[in-house]
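FORM 12-B: Structure-to-Sequence Request
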């Protein structure tokens, strides 16, 4: 493998697969069409999912690019029923408050078509909950060192684990109880970590319904500048 030194650090030659344009176009189209079959599913079956599968999902998420390659994330995977129960109780307590006063009328109206409410049975029914924590800083040699682009990095890692979940034929939903600091205490996370997103993961229940929604068209989501 070819190597070179940059600022005293070894760089290795990038080995890549490339495709002729026609093939590349087809691969991009197929990947888009496959990603477009993903849906957020709230009815998650209690059918078991192995720890090995979850480990590989986490590793897929952890391939995300990150500011200065600090990889500022911890994926906490919960399968223990007592811990799931505690998380559900705390999340529902917060969500109850949110749905009964903390969220605006417009927000509640926007959620009507989605059909969510303060009850979160998936937090106990799903075989696994993966809670992604962002590491705002690290302590190195007793010194506090802030990480870079933490929200961007962790958001990308979440996107990558979500696509890996879809690839495995499993389902998830992006649960954001608010406030979600109860997760820090229940999971005993250190002071430099903040909860970012909770993903319950499992098989869908046998018969599941999801909102009949449309995704925005290319025209609505993109702007091209070709001059
Ligand atoms: N976090 C709450 C409310 C909620 C907010 C949005 I924006 C959604 O798209 C769905 C739900 C909850 O998890 O119910």
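FORM 12-B RESPONSE
SEQUENCE OUT:
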């Amino acid at each position: 493998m070819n190597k070179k030194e940059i600022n005293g650090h070894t760089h290795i030659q990038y080995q890549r697969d490339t495709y002729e344009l026609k093939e590349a176009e087809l691969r991009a189209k197929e990947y888009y069409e496959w990603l477009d079959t993903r849906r957020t599913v709230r009815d998650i079956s209690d059918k078991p999912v192995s720890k090995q599968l979850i480990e590989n999902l986490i590793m897929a998420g952890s391939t995300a690019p990150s500011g200065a390659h600090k990889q500022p994330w911890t994926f906490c995977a919960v399968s223990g029923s007592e811990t799931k129960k505690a998380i559900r109780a705390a999340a529902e307590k917060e969500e109850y408050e949110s749905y009964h006063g903390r969220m605006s009328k417009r927000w509640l109206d926007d959620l009507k078509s989605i059909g969510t409410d303060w009850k979160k049975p998936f937090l106990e029914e799903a075989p696994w909950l993966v809670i992604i924590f962002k590491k705002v800083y690290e302590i190195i040699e007793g010194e506090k060192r802030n990480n870079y682009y933490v929200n961007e990095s962790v958001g990308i890692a979440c996107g990558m684990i979500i696509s890996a979940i879809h690839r495995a034929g499993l389902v998830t939903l992006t649960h954001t109880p608010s406030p979600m600091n109860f997760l820090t205490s229940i999971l005993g996370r250190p002071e430099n970590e903040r909860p970012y997103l909770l993903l319950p993961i499992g098989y869908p229940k046998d018969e599941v319904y999801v909102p009949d929604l449309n995704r925005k068209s290319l025209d609505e989501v993109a702007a091209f500048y070709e001059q």
